[in-house]
Structure formats: structure tokens, C-alpha cells
Amino acid sequence: MSLSRQEMARIVARDIPDGSYVNLGIGQPTMVADYLRAGSGVILHTENGMLGMGPPATSDRIDPDLTNAGKQPVTELPGASYFHHADSFAMMRGGHLDICIMGAFQVSAAGDLANWSTGAPDAIPAVGGAMDLAIGAKQVFVMMTLFAKDGKPKLVPSCTYPLTGKACVSRVYTDVATFVLDDGGARVTETFGISFDELAARLDVPLIRR
Amino acid sequence: MSLSRQEMARIVARDIPDGSYVNLGIGQPTMVADYLRAGSGVILHTENGMLGMGPPATSDRIDPDLTNAGKQPVTELPGASYFHHADSFAMMRGGHLDICIMGAFQVSAAGDLANWSTGAPDAIPAVGGAMDLAIGAKQVFVMMTLFAKDGKPKLVPSCTYPLTGKACVSRVYTDVATFVLDDGGARVTETFGISFDELAARLDVPLIRR
Amino acid sequence: MTATEMSALDAVAAVQDGDTVLVGGFGMAGMPVELIDALIEHGAGDLTIVSNNAGNGDTGLAALLAAGRVRKVICSFPRQSDSWVFDGLYRAGKIELEVVPQGNLAERLRAAGAGIGGFYTPTGVGTPLAEGKETRVIDGREYVLESPIPGDVALIRAYVADRMGNLVYRKTARNFGPVMATAAAVTVAQVSRIVEIGELDPEVIVTPAIYVNRLVLPGSAVRRTEVTS
Amino acid sequence: MTATEMSALDAVAAVQDGDTVLVGGFGMAGMPVELIDALIEHGAGDLTIVSNNAGNGDTGLAALLAAGRVRKVICSFPRQSDSWVFDGLYRAGKIELEVVPQGNLAERLRAAGAGIGGFYTPTGVGTPLAEGKETRVIDGREYVLESPIPGDVALIRAYVADRMGNLVYRKTARNFGPVMATAAAVTVAQVSRIVEIGELDPEVIVTPAIYVNRLVLPGSAVRRTEVTS
Predict the structure, then answer these.
(1) Which residue of D has its CA nearest to A78?
(2) Using CB atoms and an 8 Å cut-off, which of residues 16-35 of chain A contact chain D?
(3) Is C114 part of the contact surface with chain B (CB cutoff 8 Å)?
(4) How many Å lie between the alpha carbon of C4 and the closest alpha carbon of chain B?
(5) Which of A71, C87, C218, D211 is spaced 20 to 30 A from D47 at the CA atom?
(6) Does A190 qualify as catalytic in the annotation?
(7) The pLDDT of residue D83
(8) Average pLDDT over residues A34-48
(9) pLDDT for A52
(10) Sheet holding B169-173, edge to edge
């Protein structure tokens, strides 16, 4: 069986070492927080100026001055700190975050990331912090379904969508398999409801058996 | 009569507009603070990370964590703020200080400043914040005796000592005259114990009568 | 000079036709809503707006855009579910857009405030947003040259000011405020409270008074406007 | 990872022969005296020291220099009335010196911590310290290209830390600490007090814990050294 979004989030959370400094991208990556083990010591960064972000805020704990990068109300954990946008992105771009987790339209076997634009001619470009996250963290984990709705693979020999960052993705977590990208190869570390050979047949990317 | 160091400091203080943000260089310029009118609202910056610096600290008010750029103990005025070195020099280099006051070995008629090195072959180079101050403030005032001990003028057609900054000095306060430098000319605004013609005869710089 | 307390309308009178205006905020956190409303009332046009987003719904920045006052937007993320005002103007060719990665936006604003003429950033290398820009390999890594973004006026929101103009912020509403304050010739800060000089701890001040020219307390601004109208 | 409390000697064991060590402080304010003493005891050599000055008198940095452990000093102001140790080594050709204007020093450290590959600075243009460096005219003003200064280890002094490693400083002892903490692979902070997580107000933290690896309380360090020796 392929994984649900929740199961993918759980698997990503499992692979985050205790005590890591992590940035969770907008959307699906946000769910990873739900599966971090209590006491893991993982500290969340949000690029709008905070380390030590806590769970989403509800009802009377909602504070309009305390949001995550998706502009959703969040909370503050003990040991948190606030800083301005230039300091926050300096932290990211200076390579201080251990892991950043993002969604993607496409990832290439070389680790190129495309997740901000489908290149549609009438699209209004909007990038936010994606390009900074892509090149800033020590490791970039991508979470995505492996195949688009039309069945086309999203792990590709070379991205056809406009890039977010070059050679920046280290792992790809999908609903049917997990890949570690290194030295241009995609190593399959786990499969879910699909065999390695089936996977190899459906992807144009050379795969390495773990 | 030529001016004493105290009188020079008094004249410089007189020319600082109320409410200015000012950096006083190490040494003689420090004395300017003694002549700022109470209620002038002049706010002193020290490049080691403070706005709102107060008078020198004495006896039991000495705090080793609170010094000026000359590493002398100082005090803190109400409304002061502290910041780190990069922020402090960003403030200076970004053109936010109104006036910086420095000593000099030589100033050229074009406003070039030489105040960090005499170029002696065996000298150990040391610049501190002088080059940042020279180019950072909106206006740079120089305080110096007009003639060196050997009688040579220090306001010169072109500096022979290594430069601190190019075309950065706007006014030169000396013991015998005050000069405003603009468009390559040195305009004499005041003389002390010397006539304009005597001054013109002793300097190689074309002077403008105010 | 010590910052001056003013009504919102008086404060934004610093903005002239053709100016570049830096507008703080990330979503509603740190957004100087009353200053933007005053800017609409003020009437200056042909503006370049530098902000993280390009307006939401029909109020604030979106209303400024809808009023036809904005020639160009420099931002990281114009396209949102409720950015219909911007979307319409953009598709109609009535507004220019420069999309800047958020970290480059923050760093370019800092550079403007810090006297940096340009800097080499790793962000955007190999992407469409670096096309036509100078690149350079430094120690084996590729970088793009980016330039400062100075503003004529910054409109920001802080939490507490003292009468000198020192500012502290609140939680993630801090965001772009401190860098924008350094990057503009005139900075107007909308604050929730103004205290006497000496009441803010010098160790905790985030924006020193040197960067702040005008203070606006929204409540009092409304009262003053009513009195004078 | 949460910062770890250690003895000074254990903490500076992060320094290896040939390392670049960033040493905080401006005069004695912010100087991590106990960490420097421990570094001398530790014995690592062939070091490059980045600090504002090059040692005073016969203790601290001067003692490290006198012990022959330093190959090169990068600083803004080596020459002081009591810098005889440095002066002697320099005149004897036994130590390299790179003099950097103080603002460029701070900005180059910041650049290293912020992932900036290089930047154009107005400081030093037309002076001997810009000789041989690339210059560029931007908007009519001349700038010099300067590069980041990354460190292997930073030794800084702060005032209070929490057990996570968040730091606050005291008055002008803040100086180079915050930028050096961002610029080194390993940052060791000597502090006067360590409090529990949550005891520091998140709004006033100057150096977030992500930049701090090791905490040293000088008093306890001495006790521990006595116990183990």
C-alpha cells in the first residue's frame, strides 16, 4: 500500500536526528511536526523570525503577532527566540539549519529542485523563501507524491519546470518509496506497495538498490 | 592668539546642530563632549556598540563592560541602546550618523583624510575604525593643529601620508583657523591670532575668504 | 533628531509622488495598517512598493493598488488566494512586478541600510530569478550579485517606542521592520504604545532611535484627524 | 543540538592545530579570558587568530602569541601602548598580520555567518588597505570587494546563557560576540551565569542557541580542573 500524507510525515519525522534545527516548509511538511517524538529536542525554525516554534495555536491562544511562514497562528516553546527577517534568512543561508523539508513539483536525480513555478506562461511568479531554503539548510528533504495526477514521475532525469535550486535535495520522501540522492544517483531505501523493479520501470532515473 | 585644545573643542561643539547623532573619535575629539550644551539633544555613538553614550565614568561608576572606542570607562544616558559590532558599523557606514569628528595627520583641500599611518617603513599598521568613520558619516569634521611640530602645514594640496578616506572631510577645525571644504576649495570661516593673508602665505592650498 | 509623534496622515505626508515606499509586515503580523490607510488618503501616486506580499482582499495594500497609486511592486510572494486586486492589475499590464526571493529581499534592504554596494548571494543561482544577473564562483560555489534596495520612506509597525524613537517589536511581527527602518530616508513607525525616554531597557532595543523619524499612535491619530477635519 | 556545559579546557579542545580561531572582545570588554587561558594550556598551534586587537601586556592573547602558537593575526588594531609581545614577533618576522578596517572585519565575519560570498564596501577605497583588491563603481560611488572570514572555532564572552545556548550580553561587552558566534563551525561561550530553558525572554535573546555549541562557567571550570588534576 502506498503511504498516506500522514504516514509520509511520520517517516520523515523518524529520520530527523534528535536535537536538529529544522525548517518545515508551507503545506504538507508542516505535518511532520505532529510526528516528532516528545523529548526529541528538535527545534523548529520559521523564516518569518523565530526559533523554537510550538504547535499551531487554537482558540484563545491565537495571537496575530505570532504566526508561521504559512501565516497560520502558532505558539512559542520555552527557549524560543525572535529575530528580524535579515537575521532569520542569514541563519538559513549561512548553513546553520540542519534540515529543511519542502514539497516539490519535480526533483532531479542530481538533486535539482523545482517547487515554485510550473512555468505556465500566464502564471504570476511568486517564490517566497523557497529559493533561500533550498540552498541554505545542510540537508533538504523533499516530501511529494512520486507521480503527478497524470501519472508522470516527479523524480526526473532533469527538471522541466523552472528551478528553485541546483543540486540541493538530499532525500526524497514519496508515497511509494524513499530515495537518498548522492553523487547523481537515486538510492532507494524503502518502498511502499511497489517493488524495486516496478519502480525502476516507471522512472527514467537510474536507481540504486540500497 | 591661537586656540587651546579646549577652545577648539568648544568651537566644534558650537557647530554641532541640536539633536545630531555624532561619533567622537579617540583622543582630542573626545573633549568635544565637554562643551555640548545641556539640552542640545546631541546623541553620541561609540562604534563598539552604543548610542546614547554619557560622560566618562569615575570611581565607583566604572564598569568594565561599558567603555568607549578608546576603551575608557563611560556611562549610559537615558534612551541609550546597545548593538553588536556589525550593526554598529552598519549604522556608521550606512550614512546614518550626522557628524563624525576625528584627528588627522593631513587633510587635502579636496577633503582627503590621512590619519592612520605616517607611512614610516617600520611602522606596524593599525587602522581601527578610522576608515569606516571617514566614509560613513554624513559630515566628517577634523580637529588638528594647522602646523606640525616642524612647521609644515597639515592642510595640504595633496596628502603625502597614506589615505584613510578620499574626499570625505567637510570641515577642518584648527588652532589658528576653521576651514569649510567644498568643491575643492578651502573656505576660511574664522581665524585666531593670524590674518587671512598670513594664512594664505603659509599654506600651499588656495583659500577662499568667507 | 528625536522622533516626532504625529497623526498618521501627517506622518505619511513624507511620501511624494514617485517614491519608493518600504512597507513592513508578513501577512498581517507587523503590517502598519493605519499608515497604509493614511497613505491612501494622502494621495501620493506613481509609487514603488517594497513589501513581502502584494496585498490581500480589498483593504490595506490592495486598496492602495486598487486606487491606482502603485507603478511597481517589489516583493517575494504576490500571488495568494486573495490577491485578486494585484492579479487583475498585473494581468492587465497595469503594474510592474519584481519578484525577489525573500532572503534576498531582506538582505538587499539590509545592504541599503548598511552602506553595502552589492553582495554575492547563493540564493537563486541557476533559477529564472537570476537570469541576466552577474554570477561568480567563489571557493567553488556559485553566487549571484544582488544590489541594495533603498527606500524613500519606510512604513513599519513596532510594539513600543520611547519618545526618542527607540523601538521594540512583538514576536514574529518583528519581521521586516528592523531592516526597513535602516533602509529608508524617512522611517515612520506605527506603535501600540509610547513610553518616556529611559523606560526601555537599552539591552533590549531592537531598532535604535537613529533609524526612526516619526511615531504614530493609531488611536490618537484618529482623534487628531477628527479634530482638524 | 542544545549547548553543552563544559570546563574551559574541555571546551577549547575543539581547537586543532592550524585552525582559525575567532576571539571576541574589544579591549577587556567581552574578552573571554578564561577560554584564552585554557587555549594556551590546551596547546594547539599554528593558529590564525581573528580579533579586534593583537594582545595587551603579557596575559591573554599576548601570552598565546608569546607561546608561539599563532601563525597569523587578522585584526583592526594590533599596535597599542602595551602590545609589545605582538610588536616583537612582528618585527622579528615571526608572525603574519592582516590589518582589516574594523567595520570590514565585523561585516566579513557577518558575511561568513550569513552565507554571503563577498560584498562591496565603501571602506578603504583609495587607501593602502584596498591595494590589489577588486574595486567597482556602483551608482557613482567606488567600492572594494571584501570576502567572508569564517572561523573553525569562536571563543566569545556573553553574560547569561540558558541551557539551550541562547545568549544575552552586557552593555558594550556585546561587541564582536554575536557576529563571531555565527561565523564559526564551533562556538564556545564563556558566560557569567547559566539559567534554565525558558528563563530568558525570547524577545531579548541576542544570540539564538543555534549558534552556540559549548558553554563555560569560569568558576565551575576552575573547580572541575582542580578535581580532575
Answers:
(1) D198
(2) 19-21
(3) yes
(4) 12
(5) D211
(6) no
(7) 93
(8) 94
(9) 97
(10) B74-82, B50-56, B43-46, B21-24, B99-102, B139-143, B169-173, B177-182, B185-191, B207-209
Residue-level pLDDT at C220: 57
| pLDDT above 50 for D216 | yes
How far is A141 from A127, CA to CA, in rounded Å? Answer: 18
Q: Confirm if D84 and D92 have CB atoms less than 8 A apart.
A: no
Residue C13 has pLDDT above 70, yes or no: yes
Which residues on chain A are in Cβ contact (under 8 Å) with D160?
A: none
B208 sits in which H/E element: strand B207-209
Cα torsion B84, B88, B93, B94: sign: positive
Flag whether residue A75 sits within 8 Å of chain D, measured between CB atoms.
no
**C104 touching A (Cβ < 8 Å):** yes
Average pLDDT over residues D130-139: 96
Q: Strands (DSSP E) along chain D, which ranges?
A: 4-6, 20-23, 47-50, 70-75, 96-99, 118-121, 135-138, 141-146, 151-157, 160-162, 167-168, 184-190, 193-195, 214-216
Residue C80: what pLDDT?
Answer: 86
- Per residue in B137-168, pLDDT (tens digit) is 999 999 999 999 999 999 999 999 999 999 99
Q: Which of A47, A76, A190, A198 is catalytic?
A: A47
ipTM: 0.96
Cβ distance D202 to A19 less than 8 Å, yes or no, reads no
| C 144-173 residues with CB < 8 A to B | 162, 164, 166
Q: How confident is the model at residue A119, as a pLDDT?
A: 87
For position C226, what pLDDT does the model report? Answer: 35
Give, in order, the Cα–Cα distances in Å from D178 to each of A82, B56, D78, D183: 15, 26, 22, 9
C4-117+148-216 under CATH 3.40.50.12280, yes or no: no
Compare all CA atoms of chain D with the CA of C119 and give the residue at the minimum distance.
D119
Report the percent of chain C where pLDDT is more than 70.
95
Shortest alpha-carbon distance between residue D65 and chain A (Å): 31
Chain B contact probe: residue of D23, D102, D156 with most B CBs at under 10 A: D102
For residue B184, the model assigns a pLDDT of: 62
Q: Please choose, from the candidates D175, D210, D167, D213, the residue with its C-alpha nearest in 3D space to the C-alpha of residue D192.
A: D167
D210·A97 Cβ contact <8 A: yes
What does the pLDDT look like over C39-74, one tens digit per residue?
999 999 999 999 999 999 999 999 999 999 999 999
**A5-209 CATH pick, 3.30.1490.10, 3.40.50.1260, 3.30.300.30, 3.40.1080.10:** 3.40.1080.10
Record the pTM: 0.96
Q: Name the neighbours of D, counting chains with at least 3 Cβ pairs within 8 A.
A: A, B, C
User: Of B19, B20, B80, which is closest to C202 when you measure between CB atoms?
Assistant: B80
Q: Does A131 touch chain D (CB under 8 A)?
A: no
